[in-house]
Structure formats: structure tokens, C-alpha cells
Amino acid sequence: MGEIWNYLKDFNFVSVVVRLLLAMTSGGLIGYGREKKERNAGLRTYMLISIGAALTLMISFYENEMLHGAWAPIVESLGGLKFDAARFSAQVLAGIGFLAAGTIVASAHQQVSGLTSAIGLFAAAVLGIASGAAYFECVIPAIVIIIFSMEVLQPLEVLYKRRLRNITITVKYINPTDVEMIRKTIEEQGAQLFDIDPEEVDEDNYPSAIFSMKMSKEKSSHSEMLSSIAELPCVLSLHELIS
Description:
The protein is α+β, with helices and mostly antiparallel strands. The chain has 2 domains: 2-161, no CATH class; 166-240, 2-Layer Sandwich (Alpha-Beta Plaits), CATH 3.30.70. The chain is 60% helix and 13% strand. It has 9 helices and 6 strands; from the N terminus they run αααααββααβαββαβ. It has helices at residues 2-9, 13-36, 43-67, 72-77, 85-103, 115-132, 136-162, 178-188, 222-230; strands spanning 105-106, 112-113, 166-173, 192-198, 208-214, 235-240. The strands form 2 sheets. It has a 4-stranded antiparallel β-sheet with strand order 4-5-3-6, covered by helices on one side. A two-stranded antiparallel sheet has the order 1-2. Strand 1 (105-106) and strand 2 (112-113) form a beta hairpin. The chain is elongated.
């Protein structure tokens, strides 16, 4: 077993194929969860980024092999050349920064989406670099931890945020003067209203606003707060903003 492990860590054809397959698998596993949720970056995007990162690092290793092999006479005639594999990895991560920034967009109600996709792209690139470096001891547990963080913890995070006393909601109502009725309803529930931020009138010409508040210890149920506001005759729709 130890001989096989050492063989895969050597720079040979089989090792190259294994590293590329590992990079493809690690990127695909991360991208699969994003694909199911129909995010900006999906399965193929993550796979290609991870494979590309692995290829970049392996090209640097190939360059090092050639500098000490077939290219050695030319290198000696030039007075020697320095090799730095970390330089290739740094360029990969710098390039991923531009791609990741493209997945972050400002959505409705002053919310930002795509942050998890962006950091997922970064993680896929790093996994590709580790795969290209044959750092198998790191790649395999890292895949498990990253997928656990992105997929398993996501519903737990939402559940935790729904149990907090701070709550932000967006409400669509009939007339601008209805804000006062909504404000009174919130205060009657014992909540402390922090801010009311009116939004632009939508295509139906109905106004809406974002209400930020902190609920009391006695009445800290998010569902009860939402129900009390939804029952108002002036309210057309509302939903809780969870980042």
C-alpha cells in the first residue's frame, strides 16, 4: 500500500491522471450542491475551475522536471533559472478572485447573493491546487468538510437565524400612509423598531419598505410577528429577509 501511495505522489502519467480525476471529483462534489440550488456557478463551473487549477500546478512541476532534464543544457547556457511553484498557485487564486466577484450580485430588498458561490469557487480552486500537488492527505478530508459546511450546515444556519430576536422583513402595502399602521402593530407586539427603509415602487405601483426590529423576550417568535403583520388589511405581501 505504501508503495502505491508513493508511486501516486511521483510525477508520472498515472499520477497525473489520478490528480486530474481527484480535482474533477472535488470540484464536481462542491458544484453539484450549487447546481441543485440553481446558483450562478454550477457543476461544470466548479469542475473546470478545479481541473484548471490542478493543471496549472502540474505544468509548473513539468517545467521543473524539464529544467533538470531535457532543458538542462539550455538552462546551463543561460546561467541557470529559478523555479517557484508557488508563483503559479498565486496566479490561479488571483484569477479566481475575478470570477468569484462575478457571482456576487445585489438582489432585491438590499440583499446580496452569491457569497457562498464565490467562496465555493475559491475552495474548488484550492482543492485543485492541492490535487495537482498530490496532497491527497489534505484533499480528501477537505472535500468532506467543505461539503458539510456548504450543504449540511445551511439549513441549521437558517434555523438559528430564525430563533434570533433581531428580525428584518420586507412588507408590500397599499398606500404610503399604511406604514404607520404597520409600525403600531410591530410596537404592540413589544418589538423595538430600529429602522424603516422605504423601497422603490414596484411595477404594480404598490409601495414597500424594509422593517428592522428587535423582538421582546416574551414575544420572540418570528412566525407570530409575521402573522400579526400579514393579518393587516393594508398588507399585500411580506417575507423575512435571511442573508
